[in-house]
Write a structure and sequence with these properties.
Blueprint lengths: L1 E7 L14 E3 L3 E8 L5 E8 L10 H7 L13 E3 L12 E9 L1
The protein binds zinc ion (2 copies).
């Protein structure tokens, strides 16, 4: 099970969608929080899959073959980089918000 929360910039009050803030892992997929260089959106993107739709767990070889270490932005298909938890607007380290949700 993974957990996400929203992040808030203490300097300019920019907030993110609920994201895990780093590597996370649900039952079906491995995700990483990444920043889009084009539209500056912070989002959790799938970097790997652990099971097929019938919930059969992949072997390590199969998961490697399906790994997606360089996912593109879900909004604009732009290039993304791992998010360092800094504000996309001003670069200030963001703080974890109060809102939390569980996924998967
Ligand atoms: Zn900011
Ligand atoms: Zn984008």
């Amino acid at each position: 099970m993974g957990m996400r929360c929203d992040w808030r910039c203490p300097h300019c009050a920019t907030t993110t969608e609920p994201v895990s803030g780093g590597h996370d892992r649900g039952f079906h997929a491995a995700t990483q929080t990444r920043l889009c260089l084009t539209c500056k959106t912070v989002q959790d993107l799938e970097i790997g899959v652990m099971s097929d739709p019938s919930h059969r767990i992949f072997t390590p070889e199969e998961s490697r073959a399906r790994a997606n270490p360089d996912p593109v932005c879900g909004t604009c298909s732009g290039r993304t980089v791992p998010w360092d938890r800094s504000c996309p607007s001003c670069g200030t380290p963001m703080e974890r918000g109060e809102h939390m949700e569980f996924w998967d």
